[in-house]
Amino acid sequence: MSLENDIGCLRSLPLFRDMPASRLKLVALMGERLLFEPGAILIHPQEKLEGVYVIMEGEVEIAHLGENGDERRFVKDAGSITGDVSLLSGKPFSTTISAKSRVLALRIPKDLFFELLQTVPEFSLAVCRDLADRVHRLASALLHEHETV
What we know:
The protein is an alpha+beta fold. The chain has one domain: Sandwich (Jelly Rolls), CATH 2.60.120. 42% of the residues lie in helices and 28% in strands. The protein has helices spanning 3-11, 21-30, 84-89, 110-119, 121-147; strands at residues 32-36, 41-43, 51-57, 59-65, 71-77, 81-82, 96-99, 103-109. It has a four-stranded antiparallel β-sheet with strand order 1-8-3-6. The protein is globular and about 50 Å long. 23% of the residues are buried.
């Protein structure tokens, strides 16, 4: 992909849609483009992350093994971000993230991610909305699961 293609791809994602062009170019230049084949692991449990992953193409699968041995799996597709909760909380990642299909991801270094949060209000708001949406979906799923028990 060329720089222009990377910028266009980022601009199409909700997290970056309202970001100023100069900052978007910085993300495209400083981000590390990574290609993962199906089954490849992006993030291991207990890994201390040095950046967030923006899924530009493909799907990733989040797998979590519960204390009772039950495994839960969730899929995130293109346009999603992962690793942000771990970076924001300062805690190691708690699950495995693997490529469900061929995945093109842009790894945004931790320092750049935090700089964007501090200096680009549109990005901060987009990350907050994304986190709130995930919390809402999680709460709904937990409440629904609890009602059926």
